[in-house]
Amino acid sequence: MADLLTKESKRETRHVGETRKSSCLQEESEALGENGHDAKRHKVDPEEQNKRHPKRKVVLLMAYSGKGYHGMQRNVGNSQYKTIEDELVQALVLSGCIPENHAEEMKKMSFQRCARTDKGVSAAGQVVSLKVWLLDNIVEKINGNLPSHIRILGMKRVTGRFNSKNSCDARTYSYTLPTFAFAHKDHSLQEENFRLDQETLNKVNELLALYKGTHNFHNFTSQKGPRDPSAKRYIMEMCCEPPFLQGGLELAVIKVKGQSFMMHQIRKMIGLVIAVVKGYAPSSIMERSWGEEKVDIPKAPGLGLVLERVHFEKYNRRFGNDGLHDSLDWAEEEEQIEAFKKSHIYPSIIQTEIEEKSMASWLATLSIHDYDATSQETNTVDNKVEGSAQSDDGGDSD
């Protein structure tokens, strides 16, 4: 970060207005008040700010706990549902990174999120791109105006035409769940005492591996019809990691990497595997779900779904070693990412599961699904969305 700012400062042209700049900075500092609040702060003059600091395209690496928020994306003009972006934009304005008059129209700052996570979903590696004024200690200033459960973990310069959504090659999500979700339906279950055996874990991974490759996932979302080309999605990796104990529960983490995901797709992918492992559905339903017929697929709870990281392999190959821009791999921020998950994301998932029992309640509904239905009736949304469905930014996290 220091190198980035040093380079920019060397490019700035020194001119006669240094005295006026110094005076302006002093006025802003005094306006903060004794307690550091900004209620009395003078509005930043955009022209003056442009003279003092260059405006550059950057990416911000974000981590947040989504509990209590109505997703990532802002609903400008609707204050009823608070989002992560509401908090971010406010912090950007208060820290002096963007002009206040652009807060309601972030397109003027070329703002773009990489993935649109939905209600209650967390992220450990969300990335947004935008133009900002490159202030000293910019990350610290933004974090100083954010709640502790939302953090900027890193910032890097990118090319002027960089778009975090369009430049993203793939996204990796994780889904943390209590392992008693995999107990057979005939198993006498004591949730807190259940332990996942290796044989069952192997079966889970065999089923998850079937998702790899390109399949028609129209049955895994309500947005696509069976003949909609955009319902075909490419899954690169999907597996369940060995279980671990935390907060009195045995948990396991399922990770999935794909080019992009439709709304509810990941939750339904996991929900179907759980239904098969528990003995409610035959394993043959996996392949049948990719056909044109409508298949009844249960949707696992949203709690536990986390956007782990986004991938920019093509961008890194082209610009990562050009001497002007950084590679977007975030290796140096890995420790911060893991620390944030342990302090904010995992405890929230565990506490909510213990208090609300979302997984246990959902498991009780699996028996009402009709897994043997062989109806040839096409999806009711087929005619509405075929050929006109829109991307959901890769976010599967309602």
UniProtKB/TrEMBL annotation:
Domain Pseudouridine synthase I TruA alpha/beta, residue spans: 209-313
Main location: nucleus
Any one GO biological process: tRNA pseudouridine synthesis
Subcellular location(s) per record: Nucleus
GO-annotated molecular function: RNA binding; tRNA pseudouridine(38-40) synthase activity
Region (Disordered): 1-54, 375-398
Documented EC number(s): 5.4.99.12
Keyword annotations of the record: Isomerase, mRNA processing, Nucleus, tRNA processing
Listed GO CC annotations: nucleus
Catalytic center residues: D118 (nucleophile)
Biased composition (Basic and acidic residues): 1-21
SUBUNIT field: Monomer. Forms a complex with RARG and the SRA1 RNA in the nucleus.
Protein family membership: Belongs to the tRNA pseudouridine synthase TruA family.
NCBIfam families: hisT_truA (TIGR00071)
Protein name, entry field: Pseudouridylate synthase 1 homolog
